[in-house]
Amino acid sequence: MKTGIFYISHHGTTEKVVKQISEKTSQETELINIKKTKVSDINSYDLIVLGSSIHAGSNQRKMKSFIKKNKDMLLNKKLALILCCMDDTEKREQQFKDAYPEELRQHSSSNLLAGGEFLFEKMNFIEKSIIKKISGSDQNQSNIDEEAINKFINSLDNISD
Ligand SMILES: Cc1cc2nc3c(=O)[nH]c(=O)nc-3n(C[C@H](O)[C@H](O)[C@H](O)COP(=O)(O)O)c2cc1C
């Protein structure tokens, strides 16, 4: 099934996750960074995967406007949703709900909360000081959920016409 993975990534974690998914899934995938690529033909895909990440409680504005602009089309396609974030409490479920509108969540065949990373070398001065304060450390951290990613890949492989 022709699959378009439309994603946005601030420090590269979501990009890393979607690349891993693209390499491992049996679906024929194309990766489209919606920040860097002018998206023209979404309609040519049978399965659409959206990937974004949480910064200061919200996912990227560009993903929100992409969804708003293409909502009807997204609801007519097979759909799967990915979110990267560092919160590993029940709050992350709320972040997921805020990131993707209810109609899309209900329509989606598979959802992934992939975990996240704090990559200090990618942060600007303000981000560094915020994250240092929140996490109590200035060391890189990763809680990417490989098990959840593998489960998601399996579920993508099982999506058929
Ligand atoms: C400035 C900043 C703010 C963040 N705010 C949140 C947050 O509110 N909730 C959360 O769960 N994770 C938060 N994170 C963690 C990111 O979601 C995590 O770094 C993720 O891996 C980023 O993915 P990306 O590089 O693809 O954008 C924040 C990270 C940064 C650098």
Characterization of this structure:
By secondary structure, the chain is an alpha/beta fold. The chain has one domain (about 1-155): Rossmann fold (3-Layer(aba) Sandwich). It has six helices and eight strands. Strands 1, 2, 3, 4, 5 and 6 form a six-stranded mixed beta sheet that branches. The model has no long low-confidence stretch (mean pLDDT about 95). Bound molecules: flavin mononucleotide (FMN). Flavin mononucleotide binds near residues 10, 118 and 130. Flavin mononucleotide binds near residues 10, 12, 87 and 95.
Number of helices: 6
User: Compounds present?
Assistant: flavin mononucleotide
Most strands sheet: 6 strands, mixed
Task: Specify the CATH architecture.
Answer: 3-Layer(aba) Sandwich
Which value, in Å, is the CA radius of gyration?
A: 15 Å
The residue-averaged pLDDT reads 96
Please indicate the percent range of residues in DSSP E strands (runs of 2 or more).
Answer: 15-25%
End-to-end C-alpha gap: 8 Å
| Order of SSEs | EHEEEHEHHEEHEH
pLDDT < 50 runs, ≥5 residues: none
Q: Fill in the CATH topology.
A: Rossmann fold
Question: How would the blueprint of this fold be written?
Answer:
Blueprint: E1 2-7, H1 13-24, E2 28-33, E3 47-55, E4 58-59, H2 61-74, E5 78-84, H3 91-99, H4 102-107, E6 110-113, E7 117-118, H5 125-135, E8 141-142, H6 146-157
The structure holds flavin mononucleotide.
The site of flavin mononucleotide has 24 residues, from helix 1, strand 3, helix 3, strand 7 and helix 5.
